Input
Amino acid sequence: MSSTPPPKPGRSRASVIIAVLTCAIVAVSVFRYLAGNTTGRPAPTETGNPTPTSTLPRARPAAEPAPSPIAARRAKPGKPPTGRAAAVSGPLYRLGRLPAVECRVEPFRAGDLASAKRHLHGLNGCLDRAWARQFREAGQRFRAPSLKIVTKPVRSSCGWWVKDVAGTYCGSSRTMYILIDKDWLTDPGYLFPASVVAHEYGHHIQLLTGISAYYDATFPPTKAGELALSRRFELQAECLAGVALSTVRAGLPIEDRRWQELLETTRESGDEAYKDNDHGKGANIARWLDRGYRSGAPSACNTWTASKRSVG
Ligand SMILES: [Zn+2]
Output
């Protein structure tokens, strides 16, 4: 792999309107919105293929669209919770464990951009099916996001691309943007691009379950408070990325060795290297990603009630 570090998935304030309306009130938040709608994170230099140090759960069979092992609980009639309740105890946590989906993702060929695009669109289609089925089982409405793969920064309806960001989710258009770095294409087994798609998809799930609305509307009075809020939001998206990726273990496929490699990359690309601690320490990002992957259940991703230490 090249030594050029790819950036991490970005964060996204889901609603431009809310952010703009609130800007007159909280200047610091506006500054962050304008300057860092999505905050990129470079990954570390490739360190080789670490030996797996733990045993991951075996891949679930991908062939049958069987009901989820832990059935999704149907939403109770009535309006879903809003505000902080959506984040702390909302409909996200009533989704059961996502089962494997039948997913045949065409691997990309080294250096071949067109095949990389097909690869990521194929993955996205699998994630659509996995999440859609789970929302349906839980009696919740689902709408798939759009995916745009770009090779240079673009302007979305949420604004200009933020430097060093690998992906972003724009809530107002429900569109994920993934910026392919040519360095990703040197190694077809590299899972980082897939993890970026899954992370941005996590933000879409947060939007659908009311968590983004809470996040967008919450402006802590201090910078530290805002960063802490951002970390809970981002780490949850990372955990949801792990949940989503667990459904495509067989189809992507995801080998244990490659998963460990991704975790290692993630550990080395945390906030330690940055001025703002808005995504979390590398160890915490990797821990939430792995937690989601191992559990396969969004209920494992409640960063809003997690200890401060685990979202530091
Ligand atoms: Zn993010």
Summary: The radius of gyration is 18 Å. The longest helix spans residues 113-137.
